[in-house]
UniProtKB/TrEMBL annotation:
Domain B-box C-terminal: 63-189
Protein name listed in UniProt: Tripartite motif-containing protein 2
Pfam families assigned to the protein according to its UniProt record, in alphabetical order: Filamin, NHL, zf-B_box
Domain of life (superkingdom): Eukaryota
EC number(s) stated in the UniProt entry for this protein: 2.3.2.27
PROSITE patterns in the record: FILAMIN_REPEAT, NHL
Protein family (similarity comment): Belongs to the TRIM/RBCC family.
SMART domains: BBC, IG_FLMN
Record's catalysed reaction(s): S-ubiquitinyl-[E2 ubiquitin-conjugating enzyme]-L-cysteine + [acceptor protein]-L-lysine = [E2 ubiquitin-conjugating enzyme]-L-cysteine + N(6)-ubiquitinyl-[acceptor protein]-L-lysine
Gene3D superfamilies for this protein: Classic Zinc Finger, Immunoglobulins, TolB, C-terminal domain
Chain positions of Filamin repeats: 222-323
Enzyme class at the top of the EC tree: transferase
Amino acid sequence: MEAQQASPDSSSEECTVLEALPGKGTVSVLYCLSCENSVCEDCMNGEHAGHPTDSLENIVDQQLAALQDRVDSAQNRLPQIREAVQSLRDILQQLSSQRSSIEEDIHSSFSELHKTLDTRKSVLLMELEVTSGLKQKVLQGQLDTLLQEEAAINYNCSQTGEALDGENKAVILQTHKDVGERLSDLASQGLPLQPEENDQLDLMMEIEGLRKSIHNLGTIVTTNAVASQTEASGEGLEQCVVGQPATVIITTRDKSGGLCKTGNAIISAEVCTPDGSVADGEIVDHKNGTYEFQYTVKKEGNFSLALRLYDQHIKGSPFQLKVTSSPDDSPPTTTAANSPGSRSRQKGVRRGGSLLGTPKKRVNPIEDDLIFRIGTKGRNKGEFTNLQGVAACSEGKILIADSNNQCVQIFSNTGEFQSRFGVRGRLPGQLQRPTGVAVHPNGDIIIADYDNKWVSIFSSEGKYKAKLGSGRLMGPKGVSVDQNGHVIVVDNKACTVFIFQPSGKLVTKFGSRGNGDRQFAGPHFAAVNNNNEIIITDFHNHSVKVFNADGEFLLKFGSNGEGNGQFNAPTGVAVDVNGNIIVADWGNSRIQVFDGSGSFLSYINTAADPLYGPQGLALTSDGHVVVADSGNHCFKVYRYLQ
């Protein structure tokens, strides 16, 4: 019989072979491989006769090992599951954050529309009152004149009538003398008998067109595309030729593999070597679920092409890419290092101490000089086109907002290129005209995007996280972070400073267009001192203004000119540990240093390699001044003794 299992038509007692394992008795225990049951020797002489067997201990050991393998295999999935769970939680958190941000944007946008409508309503009512009042004044004046003339005629005619009715010749003669001439004047006087105004007052309101516009106002943009199903195709996936455009087609699909038929997905693409991104490229959204990545590589070799959808690799990514010098693999006529389009790493050049350019103008001179400069005009790494904002962080990094190249480039304090990120476009996560950059204490990189009219937040690795200020900002130029972790945004177009929580919630705002203490004319950049006071460069007012964290005006300094402490359109600003304020003087192409109260201290010496239209400015973690020399398409680092 089978161990532990009675035969349905047997009345014998169950075999208790499992209770008589080695060490508990002398019963020999086997395992029937055919029936997959443990049996005793008696059973093997019965119904299990002729079946293949093995030692129960061997089978138990084998199954224990098999079970352990399965446990190990199952447990090996746990890190993947945990990673997926964390990824989903991050996406859910980001989704919730985006929903809250968009909800606030909707409320804000419609609130602004209400204000605009109310303002227009007030203007129309005022216009109606003024227009009708002017017409009424003309008509009422004409009416009063005619009524006066009517009364005068009636009065004089009445007097004359009394004289005519009497027979007193003396009275008639006297009346003729007193009234006759007046009656002649009244009879011949020109009177405004025709209306001098009209009664037309009409209202023209194109309500139907406005109603249609409002009906279609705003769209919630999203897709159902997922990276695991999204595919790429085209010759540009595997090979391309140096200097010649290559193309990759990206087809987005939903979780079931169905084609997505709308655009606006957030896609990023990079052609990389192990030391960073090297290729120029542009992603074109065809608005039908497909996207075209066009890129050009200026160096031959083996590269990696990474295509990501919502920061996740699509199917097959990263792809291995072979770049050849020509279609027939013929050797190039010039070396890559010397070819006109080649990419080169430009290392910092240390400069010796320079002579003071204007010794008579310097007061309390600070001993400093040019340490190195990085960059030329171009689109490759270490090259710039209209760089503007500059930031530095405690990890020893320098960040440059490369405005016309639609990216942010990151360097070490010694000038070594580390990475860059940014995809040109007008969708969340893309950059159209980055002008300001700052680093949050949590490591996030904050970018003011002037043309997209919002501020984007990226992780320290350059992955898009969120945006803020959409619907409120008109032209954000500079950004900074205060000691509360709030994001300070200088809106150049609106002439207003906005303060946001990183979540996007507006804390406060201050400023308007004008030349008053709390007004601006094209403000550019911001810095925050140890007292959490906000320092703003007021470009067209040629001054620097200081406010407390609530936006209350504290002080200002500077005027238009070329003298000590004067400005010709100030731009970048930074504060050292002693509270001294360092200002980039754009029009005068110099850098000035002031104490915390705005008193002029000195210049940063730039005579050895003159600046040309400096923009953003920051202090590096090792105490040097870094400035975006926009006109020379480079950034420069100067020694600065605090």
